Amino acid sequence: MTLRIYILSIMQEKYSCQTARLRKPAPSYQRGTVLVISLILIVILSLLGTFAIRNATQAERSVNGIRSAYTAREAAETALRFCEQVAIYDGEDKEYSEWGSTGLRSKIIKDPVITSEQDSSAKWRNATNWEDGSPSLIRVPDKYFKRHIGAMAAADSAQLSNPPLCVIQKLETVSTPKLEGYLITARGFSNNASFDGSSGKAKLGGEAWMQSLLTRG
What we know:
By secondary structure, this protein is of the alpha+beta class. It contains 3 helices and 9 strands.
């Protein structure tokens, strides 16, 4: 009986020693490997986040640029249509006085008379004709390009903040048959545009130019 107990005690001690060996802590180099992998994953995730933010910013800039260009183009077309009416009325020897406008006939350039839009004497080419206070510069009235409720501009919709501009010059072709009419040059700006009032040159934002030839045989 004593012998069996002794043998059993030895087996239990041997088993305890094996269990202790199995529970030895992992080597330190394994913990270091996990740390390096974690750092690499953090760097990769940080780079992915940076690229995502950069792409989102570039996409937003692209959308803003497209919006600015579209607004400027619409503003230029608005000026073109308004000034065509001014020219049509002048051709009928009448003053265009719609939308609160006055004295627009006197702003039409009648000397010199150009032969085409490529004529070197076309006044739209000169920056001075786009400066504030130029006698030939036509500003489209607010009532024409802004939606109004009564006498006030509506506040429930987006409105152009920069008035569209145009210059009208008399035209007479050298072709046969000879055509007489007007060259109309229009400029439109986006709402975020800013420009030098002394020179008339745009410094920032969207800007669009449009022309039309209004002739009659």
